[in-house]
Amino acid sequence: MDIGQRLPARGRDPRLLILCFTAGVLVVHALPELPAWRYLTPLAVPVLWPWRGRAAAAAFTFGLVFMIWHAQLALAQRWPADRHGEELWVQGAVASLPEAVPAYAAGRGDAKDGGLTWRFLFEPEAPELPRRLRVSWYRSDAVVRAGDCWRLRLRIKTPHGSLNPGGFDYEAWLLRQGVGATANVREAEPCGRAAGYAVLKWRQTLVGHLQGRLEGAPGQALLIALALGDTSGLRDADWNVFRLTGTTHLIAISGFNLAI
């Protein structure tokens, strides 16, 4: 057989199909809003009609439809705007390593007030709620750990961010993290340890162990961030040093390396 006959047809070259699929995904990112499904119907015509570029057109269409479907799933998790500020009792589990800073450092009171400001991801048991909430708990004396079960009275808010040019897009970040709402804790009742979350609980145990062994050490937060991907102990001054020294990527990839 001639070697030319063993090569894939130009229209079905896997590299070309991957590029077309990627182009379909990127088109959705460039749109100001998701198109209605009825507007996508004409795209099916070139895919159904037999012609030389049909495989490339199908890959592009698949990338487009696949991205729109995923985006709609994410948007369907958002807390509705007409229920912004609603308060509910919600039972669920702490689904991340919690971040804790003194309440005065978070702009909630002064140094003499005491207490901590906790921030963590919370996964409710109720199916009618968003799958994941980002919760803030201000001026709390409680101890929050990953994998804990809590019954919380939450003031639930629709995600939103500032549209400052060049600024951090908080709303887009929440969407990428799969967070459907933010919430503030009004009251809380512990309910033991949640089932599952074995790896997360193991990481929390290691964080607690390192914090105990390195208590007072100047490099405690950095070591925990590099070893376990927990950056909650790092402060704005630390991140400024990382940016100035070009070492931010070392902290950013630690969680990925841990996953591997």
Instruction: Spell out the helices and strands N to C.
Output: HHHHEEEEEHEHHHHH
Residue windows where pLDDT falls under 50 for at least 5 positions: 1-7
Mean pLDDT comes to 84
The percent of residues in helical segments reads 25-40%
Class derived from helix and strand content = alpha+beta
Query: Strand order, biggest sheet?
Result: 1-3-4-6-5
The first-to-last residue Cα distance is: 43 Å
- Our count of helices gives 10
Could you describe the largest sheet, including whether it forms a barrel?
Answer: 5 strands, mixed, barrel
Number of strands: 6
Question: What global shape is seen?
Answer: globular
Backbone CA Rg: 24 Å
| Beta-strand share of residues | 15-25%
Written description of the protein model:
The protein is of the alpha+beta class. It is built from ten helices and six strands; from the N terminus they run ααααβββββαβααααα. A hairpin with an 8-residue loop joins strand 3 and strand 4. Helix 2 runs parallel beside helix 4 and helix 6 packs antiparallel against helix 7. The protein starts with a helix and ends with a helix. The N terminus is likely disordered.
